[in-house]
Amino acid sequence: MNDDQLLRYSRHILVDEIGIEAQQRFLEARVMIIGAGGLGAPAAMYLAAAGIGEITLVDADNVDLTNLQRQIVHVTASVGEPKVDSARKTLAALNPDVKVNTVAVRADAPWLNDNVPNATVVLDCTDNFATRHAINAACFAHGVPLVSGAALRFDGQISTFDFRSAESPCYACVFPPDEAFEEVACSTMGVFSPTVGIIGTMQAAEALRLIGGFGTTLQGRLMMLDSLRMEWNTMRVARQVDCPVCGSNDG
Questions:
Q1: In this predicted model, what pLDDT tens digit does every residue of 37-80 receive, in sequence order?
Q2: CA separation for the pair 240, 178 (Å, rounded)
Q3: What residue numbers bound the domain in which 42 lies?
């Protein structure tokens, strides 16, 4: 760590639980953020500010005017531009030391299988169940920790699945892929902009705790936010023996 980095990250280094050691781990980490929208925007900005060495942004969409109400990594001049390119510019201005990779594709199972093993942590900031299940399966297969977030209207949720632990449940334990969940989008239902900011920022915090090895993550817990009443509820989540993704390893 050079003198400029020691100064830039000094307020982290002063925290006993972080210090030089965890900050160095941040600098050496590779975080994949799938989805550069409402959740991915604050997550990416906080991770870049914290000094994550390499961030890979994955999103196939372009910036739309309707995104700007909540997707704070984009600006008005970015409308029509690929989201990953718009976000890269913002992150470069925020912290030029961070390497930002941009991938303008929809993350499907083959792509995830090839690329997830390169990540230290994966953040699922997507908005559909099919992609979430594909991300979960790839992270479980390769033992890469996953931080999953979602938000709609005034409701948000977040959990961490640390597949380095044999006890960790997976996303499919909570939301089985063969069960029918109503899939709704903020384009039709709307979303309260600070809700995605809260959840996305918490995803960044989870990633930093996983990388730095300090504190307690949300493994085994699903936190649910009602931002209309500003109330949190926590549900304990255990690995399910009949889970189609992780349960088969339990014999």
A1: 999 999 999 999 999 999 999 999 999 999 999 999 999 999 99
A2: 14
A3: 3-250
**CB-CB contact of 50 with 13 (8 Å):** no
Active site residue 186: yes
Q: Answer positive or negative: Cα dihedral of 150, 201, 158, 82.
A: positive
- Per the structure, the count of domains in the chain is 1
At 30, which CATH number?
A: 3.40.50.720
Which amino acid, one-letter code, is at 7?
L
pTM: 0.94
Catalytic-labelled residue, pool 170, 173, 186, 243 = 186
Q: Cα torsion at 131, 167, 246, 120 (round to 10°)?
A: 40
pLDDT single digits (tens) 148-207:
999 999 999 999 999 999 999 999 999 998 875 666 666 678 899 999 999 999 999 999
